[in-house]
Amino acid sequence: MIFRNGDNFEIDYQVTEKVYEGFIAIFNDRNPLHTDEQFAKEKNFVGRVMHGAILIGFLSNFIGEMLPIKNVIILSYTISFKRPVYLDDKLKLYATVADIFPSVNCADFKYEFKNCDNITISKGKISIRVI
Amino acid sequence: MIFRNGDNFEIDYQVTEKVYEGFIAIFNDRNPLHTDEQFAKEKNFVGRVMHGAILIGFLSNFIGEMLPIKNVIILSYTISFKRPVYLDDKLKLYATVADIFPSVNCADFKYEFKNCDNITISKGKISIRVI
To answer: Scanning every residue of chain B, which has its alpha carbon at the shortest distance from the alpha carbon of A26?
Structure first.
């Protein structure tokens, strides 16, 4: 098992216009909370709320591209959304190896996304297997 | 609360070339399991394994666009990947209202994605709030 309990990673992501527009083009989620500034403000948000699923795309990038090995597969994700993400928000992903299971080549990461004010906007767990 | 325990939904999705290529263009996850046919076969898969995060994009579409109301926000997702999804696979999402919490305007959906052989490939829970 290449991972050790407590191994940690920090990666920068940003919900750019390209990410936001691209996500909508692929998945066709034009819910007014995501696309209608007026609607979002009526619901007490500062502006259009970015799709939470975009953060899972960032987690896919993290596991697929940012680990020291490529031979991994994701078993599960959990994610809770604690605060809204807006267009152009810069996020920092903090992920830590929280548990390892060498007999089955598995590991659990705990993670948080924080915004530029260092506030946690989302958190959860990723379980992976080394293949 | 507009939802009732046991309300259920069935939606068809497909991991088309457009979805797969679009996802990679946005999130830049080119892990060989997703992009290298030879690598995937060496790891005992039939071919390139589609990104699990794509299924979360479908769930975003489901909650944002396919419910009888638009004024919803997602609080959390869980997803477990039980079997691989390959390019062009047609999936059916089966989602059921599993619990409602009227005092806080929240509801939990349980869901499964099944492939065209009616085999469960992925399952989990979505928590939402009516806003």
So the answer is: B19
Whole-prediction pTM value? 0.98
The verdict on residue B2 lying in a domain is no
Q: Could you tell me how far CA A6 lies from the centroid of its own chain? A: 19
Residue B51 domain flag: yes
Provide the shortest C-alpha distance from residue A17 to chain B (in Å).
11
Domain extent for A98: 8-130
> What pLDDT digit, counting tens, does each position of B94-115 carry?
999 999 999 999 999 999 999 9
This model of the complex carries an ipTM of 0.97
Q: What is the CATH number of the domain that holds A66?
A: 3.10.129.10
* Partner-chain contact A81 B74, CB within 8 Å: yes
pLDDT digits (tens, 9 = 90+) for A13-50: 999 999 999 999 999 999 999 999 999 999 999 999 99
Strand, helix or coil for residue B33: helix
Considering only the beta carbons, identify the residue of A34, A72, A80 that sits closest to B64: A34
**β-strands A72-81, A120-130 pairing:** antiparallel
Please tell me the total count of domains within chain A. 1
Residue B1 lies in a domain: no
